[in-house]
Amino acid sequence: MEITVILVLFVAFISVKGEANIACTGIYGGYCSDSKICSSLGGKVETLPVRCKCKKACCKCTDQCPAGSTCITEEDTCNGKIDTKGCCGNRVCCTPTTCVINCPHICHDACPASKAREGECCGSTCCFQDI
Length: 131
Fold this sequence. Notes:
The chain has 131 residues and is an alpha+beta fold. It is built from 2 helices and 9 strands. A 3-stranded antiparallel β-sheet has the order 1-3-2, with helices on one face. It has a 3-stranded antiparallel β-sheet with strand order 4-6-5, with no helix packed on it. A 3-stranded antiparallel β-sheet has the order 7-9-8, with no helix packed on it. The protein is rod-shaped and about 80 Å long. About 11% of the residues have low confidence.
């Protein structure tokens, strides 16, 4: 009981003093803004109830990709649709393309136009004959 009271008083003291970097990052899992407001980082950004040094805002960003999509770094390969507005920081939402091989023949990286046939090969070409 005494430890809980001391901890609550410590957090309250830090919050009131405006030096709550530890409370912001450690207790709330947020980050300190460079200003008194939280700027958008792509995902859902919320202002937390504590302040950082110099009364700067304590912010927390949550990824908000659509269902079936995940956040990846900009350097990662996305085999599908990329949305730059759903993830926090410099990451992007990647929604994979559902690919069905529908070629009655053989799929290749490339084939002569005379042997190419209609059909989905998930990024490669449907060829009439094996080459």
